[in-house]
Design brief:
Strands 4-3-2-5-6-7 form a six-stranded mixed sheet, with helices on both faces. A three-stranded antiparallel sheet has the order 1-9-8, covered by helices on one side. Helix 3 links the parallel strand 5 and strand 6. The protein has three helices and nine strands. It is globular, with a radius of gyration of 16 Å. By secondary structure, the chain is of the alpha/beta class. It binds 1-O-pyrophosphono-5-O-phosphono-alpha-D-ribofuranose (PRP), hypoxanthine (HPA) and magnesium ion. The site of 1-O-pyrophosphono-5-O-phosphono-alpha-D-ribofuranose has 19 residues, from strand 2, strand 5 and helix 3.
Length: about 170
């Protein structure tokens, strides 16, 4: 069956909010450097846009953790598919994610990365779906809280499709 996608958050709203969050992060980290961890694949579009809006010196690393596969439900088992290239010791680190849903991915990732002794570790997410939380996660920066709908676009996929949509949409029929 083909999917119908309706717009939940427009491209303009997403861009405006990323600018705001980028400005807030720049103020909060004034005088410091920030090491961004992009969580692949979903976090890639948000990380690029956010990084451009941060005015303190930024370095980037990438990690791939997967729990959904091609399904719309988490398998509950989080797997590291690609690890970071660089150590975190002595760095101010920010994890950048597209969405916190059940919280399983991020609670796992935070535990793993804390064990690598960064100076600080915070979390920035484009979307937060608090109604679906199974594992508690402290979200430091969030662009939008959304209702319990399966969303796509801006990095988020449905069976690997729609990551490239420039807005956040809801999959209506699947
Ligand atoms: O809070 P949770 O219920 O754990 O869900 C959130 C995670 O699930 C998705 O990733 P996915 O595992 O689908 O991999 P992807 O980023 O490569 O699409 C999304 O990008 C988050 O990383
Ligand atoms: O709503 C969602 N959409 C796409 N991927 C996801 N991974 C967790 N929740 C979602
Ligand atoms: Mg996904």
């Amino acid at each position: 069956m083909s999917e119908k996608i309706s717009v939940l958050i427009t491209e303009e709203e997403v861009e405006r909010r990323i600018k705001e969050i980028g400005a807030k992060i720049s103020r909060d980290y004034a005088g410091k450097e920030l090491h961004l961890i992009c969580v692949l694949k979903g976090g890639v579009f948000f990380t690029c846009e956010l990084a451009k809006r941060i005015t303190v010196p930024v370095s980037l690393d990438f990690m791939s953790v997967s729990s959904y596969g091609d399904d719309t439900k988490s398998s509950g088992v989080v797997r590291i598919v690609k690890d970071l290239d660089q150590p975190l010791e002595g760095k101010d680190v920010m994890i950048v994610e597209d969405i916190i849903d059940s919280g399983r991915t991020l609670s796992y990732l935070i535990k793993v990365l804390k064990g690598r002794n960064p100076d600080s570790l915070r979390l920035c997410t484009l979307l937060d779906k608090p109604d679906r939380r199974v594992k508690e996660v402290k979200v430091d920066y969030c662009c939008f809280e959304i209702p319990d709908e399966f969303v796509v676009g801006y990095g988020l996929d449905y069976a690997q499709k729609y990551r490239n949509l420039p807005f956040i949409g809801v999959v209506e029929s699947r």
